[in-house]
Structures are given as structure tokens and as C-alpha cells.
Amino acid sequence: MQRVDAFYLYSVGGQLRPLSQIRSGGPDATSTYGEAFFPLLIAEGALEPLLYRSIFRIRTSLAAGQQLLHAIRTIKDKSKAGENDGEALDWLDSYHLSTSLSTFESVLQAELALMPLYVVMPKAGYDVTTLIEAGSHCFPAEVMFKVPEAINDLREGTRCLAFKLNTAAGFHLHRANEAVLRKYWDVVSDGAPRPVRGNMGDYLNQMKQNNFGNENVRAALEHLVKFHRNPLMHPDQSLQNSDDAIALMNGIHTAMVQMLKAIPLPEEAIQHQVGGMPAPLPNPSPVLPD
Question: Which residues neighbour 135 within 8 Å (Cβ) at sequence distance 6 or greater?
């Protein structure tokens, strides 16, 4: 996946369009070699990267683009010498330039129309860029310090949500939640051995039997197991739409917030902030004279 600059193709078109204004031959000639030099230079600087170094990697219109680039360089080389700046552009040079430009535009138009370019639509009220590039920001900031092993699955889960890969989003979000649950178990069980099988159901059963953890946390986790995790484990079940995936993410967010409250912040993550100003001291009560 690569983010693209939506303005790039527009800017390339703007740099190539002046080529259509270059004229030559007869009494109506409007362009000399000197006048054509800078539009040709700018167009060459836009076309060459598009053909050979662009993320769009055009194929069908590559040959037509190479012909246009050759026509541009042919005229530019003639005008670069400076000896014929005032001379009207040769008719044949102008003809090759205009036909090459017309052909390239037609072929490129057809290729771009079939290029697999997509727009990622918003999901509920979530910012698309955040979902794709920084999904962990949708969850408590503490998770980065207290359970860093969950970050990758949180990012992948929200990215899948953005691209409507709803079932895949569910798997990643459950994995992240289970990473937090393991740390939570270590704290509330006072370091007791983790369940052998290691799934949420086993953790919940032993937490109930031993009265480990907060009752509300256990209820939130049980809700996730019953309504989200267990159905998702069956091959014939899937998250049908983005609303289902968002509901799961919200439920996991709720459970994480409560579990993270019990997990201490590692000492290496505690840093004293600098640059702040101390809070003003409260004004003392006035002492009245006797």
C-alpha cells in the first residue's frame, strides 16, 4: 500500500498543456525556437519522471510518452544553442510535437480510466488517515507503554477496518485485546501461572474461580467472548459489515480501558516532562488583626 499525491497528475497535465500552444510555419507562426525553450524544458521535467519514476507506473501509454519526450528534446536541443532564438519553429518539428502530444493524451486517458485507483471512504466518525496510518491512536495512549506487544495488531486491525476487511479486523483486534488480558492476568493474579491453553475463555473461567480482577472487567470480557470472539472463530461466521467491526472495536476499547487501569506503568516509561510551569500556590487566608 502506498499513499499517493492526488495533485500530482493534475500538476503534470498543467506542465504539459502549454505544448499545445506552440505553433509554427507560414505567416501565422506564433512560436520561435527561443519562445518554445522554457515550455519545452518544463514539460520535459514533468514527463520524464512520469514515464520512468512515477508511482503510477504507466505501461500502455509508455511508448507514446517516449515519442513525445523525443519530440520535446529534439526541439529543445535546437533552441538550446541560442543561435536561432528568433527563428520560427520548423513546421516538421511542430507537427511531430503536436501529434505526439495528442496521441499521448489519448492513450493516457484510456489507461488512467482503467487504473486501479480507489478512495477509502470514512467509517463512522473515524478519520481515515488515522485508521490506516496510526490505528493505535484509536485506543488508550497507555497501551503503548504498558502493553507494547499489542500495538502492531491494533494498527493492522484499524487498517483492515478502513479497507472493509471486517473479519480480518476482528482477528487482529481480538489478538490485541488478548495481549492486554495476559498482562492484566499477571497483575490481578499476583503472578500466578497463565492458563495453559491461553484463550480468553480459559482466562475468564480461572478469573471467576479465583475471584481475580474486577467484576466489571470480567463482565466486559465475557460479553466480548459471547457476542464477538466465539462466533468469529467458526469458519462459517464473519463480520458482515463495518458496523459489526466498529461495535467489536468499541467493546475491546471499553475492556482495555478498564484493564489498563490495573496494569502499572513500567519504570522505564516514566519520564518527567520538561518545559512546564509549576502551578501557582493557593493564596493564603488573610490574617486579621486581633
Answer: 154, 155, 156, 157, 158, 159, 161
Cα atoms found within 13 Å of the Cα of residue 17, Cβ hemisphere only: 6
Q: What is the CA radius of gyration of the chain?
A: 32
Residues 220, 226, 227: CA angle, nearest 5 degrees:
90
- Does the pTM surpass 0.90? The reply is no
Look up the CATH architecture of domain 8-114.
Up-down Bundle (1.20)
The CATH number, out of the four listed (1.10.287, 1.10.3470, 1.20.120, 1.10.540), of the domain defined by the range 128-266: 1.20.120
Task: Write the pLDDT tens digit of every residue in 46-77.
Answer: 999 999 999 999 999 999 999 999 999 998 88
Q: What is the Cα–Cα distance from 180 to 175, expressed in whole angstroms? A: 9
**224 vs 216: CA distance, rounded Å:** 13
C-alpha cell at 181: 488480558
Residue 169: CA atoms inside 13 Å, Cβ hemisphere, count? 25
* Per-residue model confidence as pLDDT tens digits over 164-190: 999 899 999 999 999 999 999 999 999
- Please say whether the beta carbons of 59 and 110 come within 8 A: no
8-114 and 128-266, same CATH topology: yes
Cα→Cα distances 83→32, 38, 79, 86, 218, Å: 12, 16, 7, 8, 86
Tell me 213's DSSP state: S
* Domain residue limits, the chain: 8-114, 128-266
